[in-house]
Fold:
Amino acid sequence: MEKIKNICCIGAGYVGGPTMAVIALKCPDIKITVVDVSDDKINLWKSEDLNNLPIYEPGLDEIISQTRDKNLFFSTDIDNAINEAQMIFIAVNTPTKQYGTGKGMAADLKYVEQSARKIAEIATTNKIVVEKSTLPVRTAEAIQSILKSTNKKNSFEVISNPEFLAEGTAIKDLFKSDRVIIGGDPTPSGNKAVATLVGIYSRWIDKDKIITTNIWSSELTKLVSNAFLAQRISSINSISAICEVTGADVDEVALAVGKDHRIGEKFLKTSVGFGGSCFQKDILNLVYLARSYNLNEVGDYWEQVIIMNNYQRNRFADKISTSLFRTLTDKKVGFLGWAFKKGTNDSRESAAIYVADKLLLDGAILHVFDPKVKTKKIIYDLKFIWEKRNYSEKKIDNLLKRIFIRKSPCDIIDKAHAVAILTEWDEFKNIDWEKKFNKMKKPAFLFDGRNILDKNKIEDIGFKLFQLGK
Ligand code: NAD
Ligand code: UGA
Structure:
């Protein structure tokens, strides 16, 4: 096992930042440099005011204040950080491909490939390269091939160590991971590299939670874990639709079903649809993988998880427009929440984007409040999907004139025809709905896309309330 004194992490995002901060905290003797191509992001990581860190994650600011400029550094000097490091984590983004073969399904590995080429170009010593990004099975082979064929002077060992943190609880998850998976080649040098990384994690994670596997199992485990989690949400969301027509209550069903310890109670909360940067992209990736091996039934099976998620988002948007007498034109609809879940400023693939899109196209005027997501990001999210559909600049400008990002829940509720809850932020539970009722147009509609409101209380006030699966 090699003694590691210097680590570099390529990619200072939601994974690179928090994971390296925790390793730095737990291993004060290791110097860690997190690098990124984005000057802006690195500058934010360096900000003195910790409220300006590029990502919001409970507890992260505290760790950054303890480690930054001691053994944790943020830099755009990628070459130097690579050159100094014995171990290099690749934690760059792997979005769904938007062009060419596999468009809309396969993972776009261009940033991973760029990272591998950079390492090969710069390295003057042997390196352990750790795949932290979520990758299709057998990507390690491609990385290994780039490294070996481009840099013949040094040796490289590629190992896989997928990340399982969830946003909003990243620090808690990193401190007390359910498991750490490390996959490597079954060769003496592969085993040595795996043992070296095990040595780092075992400083704070129990040994029995550190699972070592072959490299392909490790890569596949990550995709399968996300697919299983998302599948549970789509399953309960499909049941929410059945509950609405039969009179059953989805929360009661989920509670009772989840009490069976073989099923378990987590990830059975019905919602307007799962979001986040990974569930959809990783399932699409799995579907693509299955179909590329001609396993079409397997691909179809997993694709249904995505189809059900789209159905749930559309169903929620349709419920709003049909309830408002099928005319949304120039009606004010308030959105409480934009983030894909509470506890994060991340809105990638948030259900809010897709519900907003449908309502805006139907002529509604949207007023949005989210405690953490920035205005710029909300506009970016919408523009991104409209540009993908090739809408003209004029059409996009006209649509954007119908959306207002507000600073408080009051601003969005006053004079609204309807209010929809898209994110389960705790502060939305504590809104004084009795007071708000008087400020809204009548009938006053509330659409609870997260089932966080007390049905009886809200209906007693006089609201027309829609909750999923009720
Ligand atoms: P992110 O977009 O937040 O961060 C990725 C960063 O990599 C960006 O800042 C980007 O500028 C940088 N980058 C891209 N190419 C680069 C290059 N060649 N050199 C230097 N920097 C480069 O992405 P993320 O959410 O941190 O996800 C990273 C990976 O981890 C993805 O594969 C994702 O699927 C996986 N993952 C994410 C989460 C999560 O909660 N977000 C959890 C587990 C796994
Ligand atoms: C998820 C996984 O939980 C992590 O293990 C994984 O590392 C990560 O994806 C990743 O690979 O990126 P994350 O997307 O941050 O983490 O958040 P989750 O808590 O899993 O929630 C995902 C979405 O599902 C959210 O929109 C959430 O609101 C929704 N959800 C979750 C439900 O609708 N119902 C539930 O019961 C649980």
Notes: The chain has 19 helices and 14 strands. The mean pLDDT is 97.
